[in-house]
Design goal:
mainly alpha; about 220 residues; disordered N terminus; Arc Repressor Mutant, subunit A; Homeodomain-like_sf; DNA-binding; Tetracycline Repressor, domain 2; TetR family transcriptional regulator; about 70% helix; DNA-binding transcription factor activity; transcription; 11 helices
Length: about 220
């Protein structure tokens, strides 16, 4: 059976090995930086713990900061993959939310495709390291950029179209607002509580913004 344009082919053996190496580098880097501090952790220490050479680490990541914020990028890629699997129902914000729920269900059940522990380690490191915090700003603001091409294909438009950017921006704001308002203590977050917080924010958005605006009269 041919692969659907919305369902990319599964990676081959070589690609899977590369992903495993990358995953190991991220895993040990987060453990070391979370335990010992970002500034005190060296690329050489990360390489030794990951059982690779420093050159290999630098081949996968341009900087130590890139390793630490990798879970943010991975979060966006995982969400995009789940969005590809959603039926087209004519409401892409709802589909994006459904994709988020499906992704988080997999995270809670199987700790895949991204470990929630990684995500929380990243945010702890961001909180205490000005260097990582400054580097993370572009990733935090654009972590949904991976969904752009998928949304565009589903909508029959381009990734830079206003409606694509608006849907991505609204959902990003919903997630951020939910976590900040309902679960501002990073150390107490769990995947389950994150889902509850984002769901609360999404439902509040629909209640206060989407529904009234859809039926509002113009003076």
């Amino acid at each position: 059976m041919l692969d659907s344009p919305l369902r990319p082919a599964q990676p081959g053996l070589r690609e899977r090995k590369k992903l495993q190496t990358r995953r190991r580098i991220v895993e040990v880097a987060l453990e070391l930086c979370d335990a010992n501090g970002f500034e005190a952790t060296t690329v050489e220490q990360i390489a030794e713990a990951a059982d690779v050479s420093p050159r290999t680490v630098n081949r996968y990541f341009e900087s130590k900061e890139d390793i630490v914020v990798a879970p943010i990028e991975d979060w966006g890629n995982a969400l995009a993959e789940q969005l590809r699997r959603q039926p087209v129902i004519g409401n892409e914000l709802q589909s994006l939310f459904d994709a988020y729920l499906a992704m988080m269900d997999s995270v809670i059940t199987n700790d895949e495709p991204i470990s929630f522990r990684w995500f929380e380690q990243t945010h702890r490191i961001i909180r205490v390291s000005p260097t990582v915090r400054a580097h993370s700003l572009e990733f935090v603001d654009n972590k949904l950029r991976a969904t752009g091409p998928v949304l565009a294909e589903r909508l029959g438009t381009t990734p830079d179209a206003m409606q694509v950017r608006m849907i991505s921006g609204i959902f990003n704001a919903i997630c951020r607002t939910g976590l900040e308002c309902e679960l501002d203590d990073v150390d107490k977050r769990t995947a389950e509580l994150a889902v509850t917080a984002v769901t609360t924010a999404y439902e509040e958005f629909v209640r206060t913004c989407a529904v009234p605006c859809a039926g509002a009269r113009r003076e």
